[in-house]
Amino acid sequence: MLGTSRPLPLNGILTLAVVLLSVLGCSSSQSTARSANAPPQRPPSTHSGPAPVINTSPTSAVSYPVMLGIDVFKARGFDAAIGKRVGLLTHPPGVNRNGVSTIDTLRRAKGVNLVVLFGPEHGIYGDVKAALDIEDSIDHRTGLPVYSLHGKHRRPTKEMLKGLDAMIIDLQDIGTRSYTFVSCMLYTMGACFENGVEVIVLDRPNPLGGLKVDGPPLDPQWKSYVGAFRAPYVHGLTIGEIARMAKKAPGIMKVPNALDVSETDRLRGKLTVIPMRGWQRSMRWPETGLKWVPTSQYIQDFGSVVGYPMSGLGTYLGKFSHGIGKYYPFRGISHPKIRSAALAKILNARRMPGMNFRVVEVPGKNGKKATGLYAEVTDYDAWRPTELNFHLMQLACRYDGKNPFSAASSSQERGFLIHMGSTAFFEALKRDGAGVDVAGYLREWEAKSRIYQQQTRKYWLYQ
């Protein structure tokens, strides 16, 4: 995953207004404008405390537009897990619509025998920084063994799966290819299929909605843990839909298939996806009525979910930062050689659909003020989530002093490519620098995104 310091939480009053308006039937553009566009009035302090506490007790009944997969599973009496020894792959956002963790929901479920936990990147409590390895452990709260899938192993071993009848997966994705929870699910599915363990995926919303598909597809040679399948960078699917597609359509997933298993194991593997109720593809997160639980230390709110595909790739190499100091990560843009007002003029002159850039001030060093740009989404429907990245790459070639792409080491080059995915664009950046044809590549990727979306429609669970 791409990372930075703690993002700024959304203004609580505005977020509450978004939820109330969406429940009353306001348009999606209105609710998104309030939740994703304007930066909060005051920047936050750096997150240095423990991970958010998981609520283990039921709260008072609240009416939400969306029932999550775990809520539907409970309403069905946990039918697919009754009488089975199960493992659970989850993390802090793995909660029901009242905020109760799936760990506790399953432990209380009659007839379900939860015997082991599995943790993705950041761990089951979300308190480990991005990219750090995590060791196996015993959960201090439940006493259950916890196998890390972000340490020595990325894929469950035969020994880890020994004695299990089913693996339940409850992970919250953010709709972008390089966020590793989809990869973790796919690796786990493959291991389970090879070892005769049923997979049960509890579906969750794509917070960006199910209609945004954008950015470069992944070249086959760059398949990795930050890109396990050949989707555009913004993939437009829920995690349950991706699971269905991986099981049924290896020709779309490719390289050679996203599960890395034999055809025999893929066909023999048993997958059950528990869909949501009430979710529609046009919904962004604020319209679900659900509270956002941070998926990592850097994705603390819906605003940072929106920012992640906008600037993470564009600041991977070069001197641009996707933040202003420790503030506005993924939404703040700064460059040490360009004044903020001048940069705002440069970016706004490019007329990126649905975007506007304005100067903001934050506390700097020694009591001084620091400035940068805030990237706001003014029209969500017109907005192309990844476009800003490629303008930043082009501008880095002009303002960094030397072309950061032609100067990249082999390890930097590989790190960039496994995230971004397009060898052709990287070679064009190295060759043409500031003269790279950004518009031409955007058109090419848009056409490929339309084809991909048509290919994947048959695996949609929601309209």
Topology, please?
Blueprint: H1 12-23, H2 28-36, H3 69-75, E1 84-90, H4 102-108, E2 112-119, E3 137-138, E4 145-148, H5 158-161, E5 166-170, H6 181-194, E6 198-202, H7 239-248, H8 250-253, H9 263-268, E7 271-274, H10 302-311, E8 332-333, H11 340-349, E9 355-363, E10 369-377, H12 387-399, H13 410-420, H14 423-432, H15 438-456
Parallel strand pairs: 1-2, 1-5, 2-4, 5-6, 6-7
Antiparallel strand pairs: 3-4, 8-10, 9-10
Helix pairs in contact: 1-2, 6-7
Distance between termini?
29 Å
Element string (H = helix, E = strand) = HHHEHEEEHEHEHHHEHEHEEHHHH
CATH superfamily of the largest domain: Uncharacterised protein PF07075, DUF1343
In terms of DSSP E residues, the strand content is: 5-15%
Count of DSSP H/I helices: 15
Task: Give the total of domains.
Answer: 2
Using the alpha-carbon principal axes, give the shape: globular
What do the pLDDT scores average to?
88
How many extended strands?
10
Our Rg estimate from Cα atoms comes to 22 Å
CATH architecture group name of the largest domain: 3-Layer(aba) Sandwich
Widest sheet, order of strands:
3-4-2-1-5-6-7
Structural class of the secondary structure composition? alpha/beta
State the share of residues found in helices, binned by percent: 25-40%
CATH class annotation of the largest domain: Alpha Beta
Tell me the major beta sheet: 7 strands, mixed
Report the CATH topology name of the largest domain: Rossmann fold
Low-pLDDT parts are 4-35, 38-62
